[in-house]
Each structure stands twice: as C-alpha cells, then as structure tokens.
C-alpha cells in the first residue's frame, strides 16, 4: 500500500473484477496515436507478410473480405490506464493469414501506414488470439481508431493492436517497435502491469 | 532516459488555481531523476482504506531538480482531477512514477524550427518545451498557437506572452469568447489560422500538437494537407475519463 493521500477516495469508482490492476473503466473510446491519422481507402489497402527469406504474401481488401470473418466480443486495455469492457468487433483471424506463410521465426514486427511499428511474439497472434479488425460496434472502423483496418490483440495492452496495419515482417529476435523503443514494455501483459521498461 | 523507477513519494509544496477549472500543482519529490521537456508521469493516490487510483499527467517543468510542476484540469465527473484541483493541500502526500515517454519530447540538440500547437490544458507539455528552449542557447525559431475557449481559460498566459521575441512568437485562438477589441471573431482553429501563423511546411519544422482528441485530429489533418511531413508531426491526444 502506498502513502495515504489525505481525504482521497470520496469520489471513487466501482471496481470490477474484469479490470486488470491499475486500470479504470471508460465508456467512451479515447484516441491515442503518435502522429496524424492517415487516410487510407480500402481500394488502396493491402496487407503483406514478409518471412525471413524475403517471401511476400499479400492480401487486398477484397481478398480479406473473402476470408472467414469472426465476430469478436472482448475487453480492451490501454497502457494509459483506461479499459473498455464488452466491446464488439469483426475481423479475420491471423490464423488464416499465416496458413499461407512459411516461417520458423518466433517474433513479428507489425507495420502500419504512417510508419508505426510494434513487436509481438508470433504465438500471441495465433490460435484465435488476434485479428485484423475492420468493424467496431457494427460500424466500419473509424480512421482515428485505426480504420480501415487495425490489428486486434486484446490480451495485450492496446498499443500492440497497431492501427492502420499494413503488414508483418518476421523477426528471429524480439526487436522493439515504436513505443517499445520509447519507454514501453517489450511484451505488455495488462494483468502483470507490464507498462514500462 | 531509461528505466522508469518504482513509485516515489511526493509532497505537495504549492498550488494555485489559475483557470476556472484548472490548478497548478508543485510537488517536492526528493528522488525525482529529472525529466526531458514534454515527458509525463503517473500519479497515484491511495485512500485510507487502501483503495488506489492512477492517472497520467504531463509535466510543465523540465530538467534536473526535485520540484515537479503539473497543471491539472478538473473533469466534472472525474475521480482524480477534482481531488487534485479542489482538495489536495500543501503538505499532503501522493506518489509519482516516471518520467515516462521519450517521443513527445524536445531536446536542446535539436536545431530545426519548432511549431507548437496547444488546445486547452494540452499546453502543459508544450510549456516545458518552451521553457527549455528559452533557457537554452538554441537559435531555432519557435512558434506557438494556443487555442482556449476564453482568455480566463488560458494556462501560463502571462509567462508565455513574456517570451515573445526573436526566437518565440505566440498566436492566440479563442473559440468562445475573445478579449475586448480582438480582431478575429471567436472560432475554432482552422486552415486559415494555421496558414497565417504557423511555420510553413517548407521550413521543415517539427510540430508538436497536444490537446483533446477532436482538436488534435483536426489540426493534424490540416498540417498534412498543408504539406507537412506526417513523420514530423508529433501528437499527444487526451480524452476519456
């Protein structure tokens, strides 16, 4: 227990067992990005996985729409301490993309339009744990929330769920991405409060 | 600046209400390692039954030293900000962790021109950047556009105005109420204001934009439309609870 702040606590919020430690509940949907929101038309969108030999596998928007689409109900947790519970998304599981990719690398660097990057171990993207998401609460994903498509990795802090995602490059090491180089944890498990270095 | 340390105890050493909803708070944190201009910290409050709440706040002070200055805007339905603005008194204790963030920062070694654009309490990290620039020998030109609802809502108004000179200029934008005799009618920051007052894209400035989400989205979009390299436009948005 920390030092007591005299008189604090009268305005406390309800606690909820679905909230990881240090998180608070929010009903709105804060926007956090390091730069301007890119404008990407679905006609121009593509998603490319590059493996360790340089082989590229690409999907257009139409390719993705032809893949099996999941309805996802999940909680999301931002390192800046807000959480939203029971959000609804639609997207394509990364399992389907990786069916076509040969790799023995254990790590990925996720890339976005606008230059953002974030590193995620491959096993955290597979087995139904991650999606390329393009709908939120029944609507196309807003550009400021990463539309037309973002990565969705709800079991990690949300900076891992790269907005405006356009590709993944396989890495043999767990190299840090953008925020990981700028002070955030290399992995980012909300339940272990892995926020910073 | 590397590892974020564990929680440190801070003691409120001073505070004054400077806008109808905002207060400057100074904390004495003996173990504070210093911070870069533009960084933020986590602040933790603990109630007497052990209940805790943590929020992030930008830091208005910079550099070495163990006094940390924050400016907190009260959110009407907030949990932490009303306590910091209305309740906490000099001598009270709280905890901080940081500094955090190595991206939305300015370093004295940067020589390029800098454009700062703030909305409301988004001024706080930009104040630390301006203070650092003023105290440095940097010849880099700095310009700021500061959007507030009304003159009384501005943080650090007199201090910022006092910096106006060869290296720094400040353009005010009032969205609801202007000072008497103000030439431009009240209204949101728009393309015309940015074209007239901000450093042009051809100067290749680094641009720091901080404010509420809608404000930052609008300003960043205009900057990109005006030809600014998106990679040179650093943004910090706030919103939510």
UniProtKB/TrEMBL annotation, chain A:
<dbReference type="InterPro" id="IPR036374">
    <property type="entry name" value="OxRdtase_Mopterin-bd_sf"/>
</dbReference>
<dbReference type="InterPro" id="IPR000572">
    <property type="entry name" value="OxRdtase_Mopterin-bd_dom"/>
</dbReference>
<protein>
    <submittedName>
        <fullName>Sulfite oxidase-like oxidoreductase</fullName>
    </submittedName>
</protein>
<dbReference type="Pfam" id="PF00174">
    <property type="entry name" value="Oxidored_molyb"/>
</dbReference>
């Amino acid at each position: 227990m920390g030092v007591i702040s005299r008189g604090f606590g009268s305005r406390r919020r309800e606690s909820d067992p679905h909230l990881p430690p240090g998180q608070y509940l929010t009903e709105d949907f804060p926007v956090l990005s390091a730069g301007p929101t890119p404008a990407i038309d679905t006609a121009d969108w593509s998603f490319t996985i590059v493996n360790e030999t340089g082989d590229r596998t690409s999907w257009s928007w139409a390719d993705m729409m032809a893949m099996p689409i999941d309805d996802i109900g999940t909680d999301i947790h931002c390192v800046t301490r807000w959480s939203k519970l029971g959000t609804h998304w639609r997207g394509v599981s990364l399992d389907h993309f990786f069916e076509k990719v040969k790799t023995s690398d254990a790590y990925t660097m996720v890339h976005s339009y606008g230059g953002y990057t974030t590193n995620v171990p491959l096993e955290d993207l597979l087995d139904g744990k991650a999606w390329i998401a393009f709908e939120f609460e029944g609507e196309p994903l807003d550009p400021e929330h990463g539309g037309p498509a973002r990565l969705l990795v709800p079991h990690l802090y949300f900076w891992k769920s790269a907005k405006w995602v356009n590709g993944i490059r396989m890495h043999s090491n767990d190299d840090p991405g953008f925020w990981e180089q700028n002070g955030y944890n290399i992995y980012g498990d909300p339940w272990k409060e892995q926020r910073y270095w | 600046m590397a590892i974020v340390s564990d929680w440190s105890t801070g003691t409120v050493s001073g505070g004054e209400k400077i806008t109808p909803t905002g207060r400057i708070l100074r904390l004495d944190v003996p173990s504070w390692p210093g911070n870069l201009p533009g960084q933020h910290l986590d602040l933790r409050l603990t109630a007497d039954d052990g209940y805790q709440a943590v929020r992030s706040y930008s830091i208005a002070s910079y550099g070495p030293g163990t006094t940390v200055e924050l400016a907190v805007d009260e959110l009407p339905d907030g949990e932490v900000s009303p306590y910091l603005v209305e309740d906490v008194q000099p001598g009270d204790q709280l905890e901080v962790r940081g500094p955090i963030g190595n991206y939305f920062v300015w370093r004295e070694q940067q020589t390029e021109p800098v454009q700062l654009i703030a909305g409301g309490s988004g001024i706080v990290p930009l104040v630390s950047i301006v203070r650092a620039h003023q105290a440095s020998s940097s010849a880099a030109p700095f310009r700021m556009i500061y959007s507030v609802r009304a003159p009384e809502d501005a943080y650090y108004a007199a201090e910022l105005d006092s910096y106006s000179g060869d290296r720094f200029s400040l353009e005010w934008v009032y969205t609801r109420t202007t000072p008497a005799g103000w030439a431009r009618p009240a209204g949101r920051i728009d393309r015309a204001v940015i074209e007239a007052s901000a450093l042009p894209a051809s100067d290749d400035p680094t641009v720091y934009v901080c404010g509420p989400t809608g404000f930052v989205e609008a300003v960043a979009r205009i900057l990109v439309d005006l030809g600014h390299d998106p990679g040179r436009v650093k943004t910090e948005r706030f919103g939510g609870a």
